[in-house]
Give the backbone structure.
Amino acid sequence: MGALQIKQLMFLGRGPFSFTIPAGNCLTISGPSGVGKTLLLRAIADLEPHEGMVLLDDRESQSMPAPCWRHQVALLPAESQWWHDTVGEHFPVFDSGLLAELGFNLDVMDWLIARLSSGEKQRLALLRLLSHQPEALLLDEPTANLDPDKGRQVEKLIHNYQKQKQAAVLWVTHNPNLPPRVADCHFNLREDGTLIQG
């Protein structure tokens, strides 16, 4: 796994942004609604037109097809998408141990998507993302719809993946209590479009 490097990234009149997340580290970003935190994640995932460079170690996003990049630098959106009727149809492979860590039994694979709560969808979307073994994680409020206990389960799972896989993690949050728990570095994205560390 490798470091995620953002170099002079600009999109929709925002930026330029430059920062590096070392392998195995987590950087959190907070800021008011509407300043572009989600757009920043989408630009890094090559889902928004942008200028500048995004690299995973020495591999530049524009040097490979976008789906290949997003397989390695994986975005977990705030609202996950589900296209089959049951949970299991979205998991070609899964880890029963990870299911248990988030409070699920194996029978969750038979559940209908229509019966899932927003919090269940959020946790299962994270497991689906991790099942592809990405090298970097882009997380948009992954604990926003969860109660404190389930939120801590998700934090622990992400931390373990980050350390075991030496994955770079970029985590957007509105929760002021979260960065001290999970982040190696924290930035605030301000309304004037500047990223301020601390």
Summary: The longest helix spans residues 148-165.
